[in-house]
Write a structure and sequence with these properties.
alpha/beta, six-stranded parallel sheet, eight-stranded mixed sheet, globular, Rossmann fold
């Protein structure tokens, strides 16, 4: 076994190339093994980073060689710097922007929260860069809906080399002639599976149609179903080989550091069980950030109100909140001033809050991918995390995929979950309980008509 194979095995890295027999760049193990300039290396020390994460170890050698790449990794894996830092190196290697030029690097994200977080990470390194002239300074524009256009238009007209944006707002600016994609040669689709879920693929197609075909494209996703695979293949280069880097299981998988547990209850018991659970889990509210996920905007507000009535300091976040309010709520949660955040899935993707100790699924999501991304808010950056899910009879469609996720993560599968799965199908067919009841009802009505 070669040294690079040992590294990949240790980090659970799987790397593939679309061109059979093409060599895969060797993974690195230390920051100084990659040719980053001093301002980036110094920033690693400033931020107290010890060594690259698994995705960074394999992605940096591939991306720095100019290759297209598809990255599959769990949330909190360090993928932002995996695409961001090679992107900054790419920007610095290009000619300076002239009047009327658009950005060199474009990063598309599904939500404004994720756009803001990537912007913050980018600023950390751009501010550390000492330019050789005023024009050479690294400038960033962050574009997303729910914010005054005037400020963002001003950012675009300051000749930013980097634009981080949600697809809708960027397309809006492109169509209005505020910016363009003529100079874009480094394109990143982050949380691409979420953008697909949210229906952004048509906008992304319109945006990428304006980018040079010989661009470098990076595609990041936490899941790899057929729809995501089809989307990825439509954007990476067809003329040149591309690489796929997968960290952990290539199947739908959860963060292995999150201890998953379930409470099998009735819908009417949820709020009482939630307050009881918080009493047991949270001994020191200042060091126990907890995310509670609900399925609707109305429900988040109702649950937040009930928690406050029970004496728990809580805030809610969902799509109807104004941007200023959402940012304030997130800051209250990040700082620990308000230890409980009740949220819809708007907070499930890309939300980067350190030291979230518990994720509680007050309502189970409709799809297993959303479940994985929700519980991925805890157990980040190598730390242990915990999730507790309220499971009702209405959630039986999730039994089979949940069992697969638990088995893949090498965690105990509750007997109740197995029994519910077995009950959800009948020996004479694969109908769900709900479908079988409907069928039985139709058969009963038919039989009654025959008797008449």
């Amino acid at each position: 076994m070669t040294n690079e194979d040992e590294i990949r095995n240790k980090e659970d890295i799987k790397a593939f190339c679309s061109r059979k027999g093409a060599p895969i760049p060797k993974p690195i193990t230390q920051f100084n093994h990659i040719n980053f300039p001093h301002f980036i290396q110094n920033q690693f020390k400033e931020m107290n980073f010890k060594e690259p994460t698994a995705i960074q170890k394999q992605a940096w050698p591939i991306v720095m060689s100019g290759n297209d790449m598809i990255g599959l990794a769990e949330t909190g894996s360090g993928k932002t710097l995996a695409f961001l830092l090679p992107g900054l190196m790419h920007v610095l290697a290009q000619k300076e922007l002239k009047k009327g030029d658009g950005p060199i690097m474009v990063i598309l994200t599904p939500t404004r929260e994720l756009a803001i977080q990537i912007h913050g990470a980018c600023e950390n390194f751009c501010n550390a860069f000492v330019p050789d002239s005023k024009d050479r300074a690294l400038k960033i524009a962050c574009l997303y809906g729910g914010e005054v256009r005037k400020t963002q238009i001003k950012e675009c007209r300051s000749k930013p080399q980097v634009i981080i944006a949600t697809p809708g707002r960027l397309l809006d600016f492109l169509q209005a002639g505020i910016t363009n994609m003529k100079r874009c040669s480094y394109l990143v689709l982050d949380e691409a599976d979420r953008m697909l879920d949210m229906g952004f693929n048509p906008q992304i197609s319109q945006i990428t149609s304006q980018v040079t075909p010989d661009r470098q494209t990076l595609f990041f996703s936490a899941t790899w179903n057929r729809s995501v695979q089809s989307m990825a293949m439509s954007y990476v280069s067809k003329a040149e080989p591309h690489f796929i880097v997968n960290i952990g299981s290539i199947e739908t998988s959860a963060n292995h550091r999150v201890k998953q547990s379930f409470l099998f209850i009735q819908e009417s018991d949820k709020i009482a069980r939630l307050t009881d659970l918080l009493d047991k889990l949270i001994k020191n509210p200042e060091d126990c950030r907890t995310l509670v996920f609900c399925k609707t905007k109305k429900r988040t507000d109702v649950v937040t109100e009930r928690l406050r009535e029970a004496g728990w300091p809580s805030l809610s976040i969902h799509g109807e909140r104004k941007q200023e309010e959402r940012e304030w709520v997130l800051e209250e949660f990040r700082s620990g001033k308000t230890p409980i955040l009740v949220a819809t899935d708007v907070a499930a993707r890309g939300l980067d809050v350190e030291n979230v100790k518990y994720v509680i699924n007050y309502d189970m999501p409709h799809e297993i991918d959303s479940y994985i991304h929700r519980i991925g808010r805890t157990g980040r950056a190598g730390k242990e995390g915990n999730s507790v899910s309220f499971f009702t009879p209405e959630d039986v469609q999730l039994c089979t995929p949940l069992i697969k996720v638990l088995e893949e993560a090498e965690q105990d599968v509750p007997d109740k979950l197995v029994k519910l799965r077995d009950l959800s199908t009948k020996s004479h067919g694969d109908l769900s309980i709900k479908e079988q009841r409907q069928k039985d009802k139709i058969e009963m009505l038919t039989e009654k008509k025959k008797r008449k």
